[in-house]
Amino acid sequence: MNTINWRGVDLNLLIAFSALMETRSVTKAAAKLSMGQSAMSHNLSRLRTLIDDPLFERHGHQMIATDKALELAPVVEHILQLVTSEILQPGDFSPAHYQGIFRIGLTDYAELLFAPALFDAIQQHAPHSQLSFCNVDRNNYQQAAEAQQIDVIIGSMKDLPREFDSQYLYTEDHVCLFDSTATGLSTPIDLARYIQTPQALVTPDGKLASNVDNQLQQQGFQRHIAVGSSSFLTIRHLLTGRNLLCVVSTLMAKLDVFQDTLTQCRPPVDIPDFDINMLWLRRNATHPRQEWLRQCVHQTITARVNELRQLN
After folding, report:
1. Among 104, 212, 220, 311, which has the highest number of CB atoms less than 10 A from its own CB?
2. What transmembrane ranges does the database entry give (predicted)?
3. Domain 95-172+275-309 indexed as CATH 3.40.190.10
């Protein structure tokens, strides 16, 4: 390997060789590649030096290929075909034949809502693939995307760094969720009863406060956060049979993973809606496998959101 003059290896030389083999003429090969005759002669000279063989010898008006040139011809054509098909014009992605791994980063919220639907959709179209759901949040998604080679991420991340692209999926709002028997609450809830009721908080970062508390404080009010957890499942378990109220996303409140009869209503405080987006590393955006996965994820999530919103 150390004795090869790699600086002298030029893909254009292989293209020139192919044209010379086809036309057996410097003039015709130059015309075929839309270059000057002197440039083609220079390429032939470089080829002869690189390969250490005359390659073509002139006999009258025709150039005769040497044995070395005849040996190289099918190899060169194979190399050029590989470059064309595998690098310059990669083939379409076939999910039905794919046997690799799809890695999808999901927040706790997104995993509960969409993991089953995503599994079903991907298994239907790519039955030989494997699917890995990677837990991410607003604080670790950048590092996780690189370290775990995540293909796409679903969440409410904002102010993305420039190495990420994104696609808007939908907008989510909030409801109050509670056990009406255990809390004694009925709908609608006014601000006074909202503040008086102990509250549970879904908190990805472990903080027992949110923007709602800042808003209440500006109005001279304060609520009591009795418990917090990063897991919605834990909070949902706690709500049943306890004097607790929790503000959750509307779609989360509609999940049928529990056989309970919790009550939901609009919050008496103004809680901003939030957008859910799909993120991916910009450098991988044009890969056919990535393009197919993003389309599949987008269609699946859109259908799932519409299904949940139609539930009472």
Report:
1. 104
2. none
3. yes
pLDDT tens profile 211-265: 888 888 888 899 999 999 988 889 988 999 999 999 999 998 888 776 668 999 9
Tokens of 16: 């020139």
Nearest to 125 by CA among 305, 281, 304, 289: 289
> Model confidence over 99-114: pLDDT tens digits?
999 999 999 899 999 9
What spatial distance separates the first Cα and last Cα of the chain, rounded to whole Å? 70
Rounded (10°) angle between helices 67-82 and 11-23: 120
Task: Specify the pTM.
Answer: 0.71
Q: Which of 120, 271, 302, 256 is nearest to 201 (CA)?
A: 271
Q: Which residues contact 309 (CB under 8 A, 6 or more apart)?
A: 251, 254
And the tokens for 301? 């999530």
Query: What's the residue count for the chain?
Result: 312
